[in-house]
Amino acid sequence: MTVHTADVVIVGGGSGGYAAAIRASELGRRVIVVESDKVGGTCLHRGCVPTKALLHVGETADAVRDAAGLGVTASLEGIDVPAMHAFRTDLVAKKYKGLQGLLRARGIEILAGTGRIVGPGEVAVGDDRITAADIVIATGAHTRTLPGIDIGGRILSSEEALALDEIPSRVVVLGGGVIGVEFASLWRSLGAEVVVVEAASELVPAEDEILRSQLARAFRKRGIETRLGSPFRAVEQDADGVRLELADGTTVAGDYLLVAVGRAPSTAGLGLEEAGVALDRGFVVTDPELRTSVPGIWAVGDVVAGPQLAHRGFQHGIAVAERIAGQSPVVVPDEVVPRIVYTSPELAAVGLTRAQAEERHGADAIRVVDYNLAGNARSEILGGGGIARVIRRVDGPVIGVHLAGPRVGELIASAQLVVGWEAHPEDIAPYLSAHPTQSEALGEAFLALAGKPLHVL
Asked: Which of the residues 52, 287, 414, 438 has the least number of beta carbons within 10 Å of its own beta carbon?
């Protein structure tokens, strides 16, 4: 048995884990990261990065189809699937190599294997032991399925869907949340027929109703079929395809079925309960500063209940490393964590939805401005349409920003600053947005909320 010593041991090398490792090292701590697969985690290897790479391929294909409207003579001869996947894997490999080099340069040790807490300040990795004053749980999440559905063959999780070596002629997506609608958008751009089955009454049900309606309208226009309010009853597959029976007795069929019903925290087998760490539905229970119920054990990212987003885990990791070093960082509240859905059109949001704002403050205590992006020159250049919704408390700060349109995800960082700093529209309105840019849409909404609209009626 080999015994390793460190100041901080981090179990999991995904977004939250490696961020905690880098920041702790910068603050003079000796760090060991335990990782069962590859540093970078799901986001880099099987989630955010490769998915968005393929979505860019789909966006490019759509741009070629629409080129004639811009005066460009072009035709789409097809999708070279091996080349598409080479683009994806090369990008991931480049980012992985860069991350490995970054961790080496910080002197961070990576120990391959599965970590398990075996005592106070002690983690086992196979026959090895690591002792450290602080332990950070950063093991992320894994794909969920539903009773009666086993992943395999023509039934895919998002990980198998990423590497699918063909473009289906028809595909069924079970789940209308973020992962489901992104794959639906991708496959439609690549030329497949798509049907999305969702038990709730709307797509992306956690988002503001104006974003839900924008996405539903876009999916109808693009020919993506949706079966909403339709729980599944049973599934069958054979060599030719998959049939999904719904609760109303109807069926939908396709070459493949993507199961996109969410992700569950990866906390089993870590020895958490034996160590006295409190769990709730598999999630690690923490205080607002990400301490668990056991002193010296912390948790970050997707193992903590809340939005399962890489940038949330990244921010958690930095905050925990600074807290361990005796600093007093701010942990960004979940409602101020920005959210992006990379469909066509993109959706982006931060803060409260209109329904949440009305429930919390009362309908008479908020004011909402909707700015149609058809009035924004840059949005029209990029493909047109969309909406910017900004919500404020009456005589108070901005509490929600919701955007739909081409590439609006690039605007959400500035919106997060406004919401996170509780800025008033009157304070923001004097600041200029360059023309022509999409950021002008937010500027117009802030002007309207400050009582001096230019283009908002």
From this structure: 287
Among 157, 218, 217, 208, CA closest to 183: 157
232-236 average pLDDT score: 94
Same domain for 13 and 78, yes or no, is yes
Q: Is residue 445 domain-shared with residue 409, that is, in the same domain?
A: yes
- Does residue 456 surpass a pLDDT of 70? no
Domain that holds residue 179: 155-261
- CATH number of residue 424's parent domain: 3.30.390.30
Do 45 and 117 belong to one domain? yes
435 is catalytic: yes
- How far apart CA 402 and CA 352 sit, in angstroms, is 9
For the stretch 56-74, pLDDT in tens is: 999 999 999 999 999 999 9
pTM above 0.85, yes or no: yes
Active-site hit among 45, 85, 424, 435: 435
Query: How many folded domains does the chain comprise?
Result: 3
